[in-house]
Amino acid sequence: MTDIAKGTGNWLDAVKPYVEKAPLAALFLGISSGFPFAMIGANLASRLAQDGIDKKSVTAFSLVLLAYNFKWLWAWVIEGVKLPLLHRMGQRVSWMLVAGLLVMAAVINLAMVDPAADIMGTVRAAILLGIAGATFDIIIDGYRIEILKPEQLGIGAGMSQYGWRIGAAAAGAVGLVVAQHWNWTVAYLACSLFALPAILAALVVGEPQRHREIATRQSVGNLAQAIVGPFIDFFQRRGALLVLLFIIVHKIGDTLANLTFRLLFNDLGYSNDEIALYDVGVGFWALLAGIFVGGVLYARLGLKRSVMVSLILMAISNFSFAALAAAGKSNFGMAGAIGFENFASGIGGVAVVAYFSALCDLRFTAAQYAMISAAASILGRFLTGTTAGALIERFGYVDFYLLTTVLALPGILLFWLLMRAGLVETSVGSAAGDATQPAA
Question: What is the pLDDT of residue 219?
Fold first, then answer.
């Protein structure tokens, strides 16, 4: 059995891998992965709310994030299309450069739009950024999994999630502070630079040794394999449908809650500086602690039990925001809710993302992870964009966050069933290591 399967190791073993080259690269990849989400999620919500746009319209903008849920439709391009001239840098590195520049251009484009004067122009710019950000995610996830050794998947997943939160929180904080002291156009222009860490990481680390190209020459047959191969490989595994169902439902409550936090903070009367302080200050250190604890749990408990612990903690974190909403504006309450949410997410970022990474086949890493990560949040994002604002206005924040807590329970039950049936072991792909020694 591999280290992933056995879940062995001591506390010192859980600390040392964080400073190795590949996990550090995963940190920089995560930073660039997280910032586009903040640009069209939290920052855009704050920008629209401050421009007087109604809650239903603000939450409807979260539908733009559905681009991340449909990225599997064009993920085959990243796998099967070789970029002229740039391909000499490597399939993954060349696409990292192009996708990163596209994201920067899309952020700059959104910076130039005034939502109060041209709401449809804002919609179009946000959609373009959503597509560019989702494309960037495809290559970032594929590259991350392939530069990590099988035994580094847990630590690498944690570092990536740590980077994602740094990128999202830092971009969110920079956006809020710069917007308050200058304007939102300058804020978005400044935040476009957050695409650079992933580009630099790819240029320094180079093409992943574990990357398996579908073929060395471009052909129609190779492109066809890039399109259908990821699905055939995944669905021929035992228990694939139940695994997919778990992927789809496990994060509904968490996604639904996270995309409405800024509305809660604005309605409770927090200033931009206060939001930035608690999101970045308390949230940063809580996430750091969560990722460290997640690494230790992963090493001591193994993948299955650490995933179950993280699912339970993430459900409880939604309840903490119901408590904050009931208490009203409270700096202590906000610090506690954000701190616990980030701590739970840090643990989940190690365990759950490691499992999802292990599900991939190295021939189709980018495409399969695109499918998995897209499925993981599609229901939550759809519900946020279509019903969240109306639910908040009808029932209030307290009952809304209680509902998100209840919606987290099916994921916990499904993973318990997967464990009992032995399907966690049979669901992994070659990214987990030797396919004859299944990880759990």
Answer: 60
By percentage, how much of the chain surpasses pLDDT 70?
Answer: 88
**Cα gap 217→200, rounded to integer Å:** 27
Residue 232, burial from CB neighbour count under 10 angstroms (0-12, 13-18, 19+):
exposed
pLDDT of 169 higher than 60: yes
Asked, for residue 440, whether it belongs to a domain, the answer is: no
Domain tally, the chain: 1
CA 364, 148, 132, 167: dihedral to nearest 10 degrees? Answer: 160
Assign residue 342 the CATH number of its domain.
1.20.1250.20
- Is residue 11, in this structure, part of any structural domain at all? yes
Please state, in angstroms and rounded to a whole number, the distance separating the CA atoms of residues 338 and 333. 9
Burial class (CB in 10 A: 0-12, 13-18, 19+), 234: buried
439 falls in which pLDDT band (50, 70, 90)? Answer: very low
Residue 23 lies in a domain: yes
Q: How many CA atoms lie within 13 A of 392 on its CB side?
A: 24
Which residue has tokens 């594929």?
Answer: 142
- Distance in angstroms (rounded) separating the CA atoms of residues 183 and 20: 40
How many residues appear in the chain? 440
- Among residues 155, 126, 106, which one has the least CA distance to residue 45? 126
190-219 tens-digit pLDDT: 999 999 999 999 999 999 988 777 655 556
Q: Which pTM does this prediction carry?
A: 0.78
pLDDT-based confidence at 147, cuts 50/70/90?
A: very high
- Closest CA relative to residue 3, chosen from 290, 296, 416, 303: 303
Q: What angle do CA 102, 106, 110 make, to 5 degrees?
A: 175
Q: What is the pLDDT of residue 11?
A: 56
Mean of pLDDT values over 423-434: 76
CA distance 126 to 65: 9
Nearest CA-CA partner of 363 in 214, 222, 215 = 214
Q: At what angle do helices 220-235 and 365-383 cross, to 10 degrees?
A: 60
Residue 237 falls in which region: left (phi positive, over 0), alpha (psi -120 to 50) or beta: beta
Torsion of CA 103, 69, 385, 107, to 10 degrees: 0
Q: Is 431 a residue whose pLDDT tops 80? A: no
Range of the domain at 133: 3-432
